[in-house]
């Protein structure tokens, strides 16, 4: 997970732009009536963010018994995310994810293609157009969460606007030998001892819900193949230690950007594998 700066737009500013873009006068009027409830939901969300206890926010079917959940959904689709609408520039700005160069902050691998409601819009209608609940995401990550309400804090995935992982390394990889003596990488969640129990649980939830183990192993397999030629060329010139320092150099270069990227974990694992540095590299295929 990569952290992102919190959006500068308030729920009220987005709501007003959305409301002024709809033709349904009755709904526009009712949206005005719920604007205080939407402010309140945003303030409540921020309060829960301080203790990372989003799971404690109760679910609802409507906003203040005045606007139905499906109407908020229609508002989102018909105005906020609709191409060409007057509020769409805000949607695009939230989706830009400039800090990650347009890469999904949840998986760190695929392109951003949508905004994910961190707390599902079907369960939290009052957070449907609240920018701090809208996280840029790739389509598979967005789909993986679906309408899931975390039952406990530990079941919450990481929130790019509120969770700061800093330098704590929690993603590890290991070289394994698969069929026909071929090397492969297996990824796992291994936070340091000082990591709190609840953060440990959340890291496991994040890794499992977004299917990061499979995603990273697949890409690491391709990265190994891309390295094959250069490693075979190095073979005549360097020994085990030469390979090890080459892999550490690769890991350090990635670590500077994100110490929990799969690339960083992968190159650390290659450096740590005596078998891979000695002979395993000859079996890449
Ligand atoms: Zn993703």
Low-confidence spans: none
Question: Outline, from the CA principal axes?
Answer: elongated
Number of domains: 2
> Which structural class do the helices and strands define?
mainly alpha
Termini separation:
30 Å
Secondary structure: helix percent = 40-55%
How many whole angstroms does the radius of gyration measure? 23 Å
User: Which whole number gives the mean pLDDT?
Assistant: 96
- Strand content is 5-15%
Sequence of strands across the biggest β-sheet: 1-2
Q: What small ligands are held by the chains?
A: zinc ion
The overall strand count is 6
The arrangement of helices and strands along the chain is HHHEEHHEEHEEHHHHH
Continuous helix count: 11
The main β sheet shows up as:
2 strands, antiparallel
Quick overview:
The chain has 285 residues and is mostly helical. The chain has helices at 11-19, 25-33, 35-50, 69-80, 88-95, 139-145, 197-209, 212-235, 240-255, 262-272, 274-278, and strands at 62-63, 67-68, 114-117, 134-137, 171-178, 182-189.
Structure description:
This protein is mostly helical. It has 2 domains: 11-147, no CATH class; 171-283, no CATH class. The protein is 46% helix and 10% strand. The chain contains 11 helices and 6 strands. The protein has helices at 11-19, 25-33, 35-50, 69-80, 88-95, 139-145, 197-209, 212-235, 240-255, 262-272, 274-278, and strands at 62-63, 67-68, 114-117, 134-137, 171-178, 182-189. The protein has a two-stranded antiparallel sheet. Strand 1 (62-63) and strand 2 (67-68) form a beta hairpin. Helix 1 packs antiparallel against helix 3 (35-50), helix 1 (11-19) packs across helix 4 and helix 9 (240-255) packs antiparallel against helix 10 (262-272). The chain is elongated, with a radius of gyration of 23 Å. It starts with 10 loop residues before the first helix and ends in a 7-residue tail after the last helix. The model has no long low-confidence stretch (mean pLDDT 96). The protein binds zinc ion (ZN). Zinc ion binds next to loops.
């Amino acid at each position: 997970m990569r952290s992102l700066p919190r959006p500068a737009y308030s729920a009220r500013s987005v709501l007003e732009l959305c409301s002024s873009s709809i033709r349904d006068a009755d709904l526009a009027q009712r949206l005005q009536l719920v604007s205080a409830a939407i402010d309140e939901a945003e303030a409540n969300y921020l309060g829960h963010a301080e203790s990372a206890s989003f799971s404690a926010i109760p679910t609802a079917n409507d906003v203040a018994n005045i606007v139905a959940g499906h109407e908020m959904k229609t508002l989102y689709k018909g105005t906020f995310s609709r191409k060409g609408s007057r509020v769409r520039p805000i949607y695009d700005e939230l989706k830009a994810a400039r800090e990650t160069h347009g890469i999904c902050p949840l998986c760190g691998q695929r392109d951003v293609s949508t905004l994910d409601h961190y707390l599902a819009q079907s369960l939290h209608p009052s957070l449907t157009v609240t920018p701090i609940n809208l996280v840029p995401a790739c389509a598979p990550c967005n789909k993986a969460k679906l309408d899931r309400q975390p039952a406990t804090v530990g079941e919450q995935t990481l929130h790019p606007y509120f969770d700061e992982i800093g330098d704590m390394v929690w993603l590890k990889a290991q070289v394994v030998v698969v069929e026909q003596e071929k090397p492969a990488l297996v990824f796992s969640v291994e936070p340091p001892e000082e990591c709190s129990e609840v953060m440990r649980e959340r890291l496991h939830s994040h890794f499992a819900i977004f299917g990061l183990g499979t995603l990273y192993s697949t890409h690491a397999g391709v990265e190994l193949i891309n390295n094959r030629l250069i490693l075979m060329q190095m073979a005549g010139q360097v020994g085990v230690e030469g390979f090890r320092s080459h892999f550490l150099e690769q890991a350090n270069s990635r670590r500077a950007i994100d110490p929990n990227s799969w690339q960083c974990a992968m190159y650390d694992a290659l450096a740590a594998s005596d078998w891979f540095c000695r002979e395993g590299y000859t079996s890449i295929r």
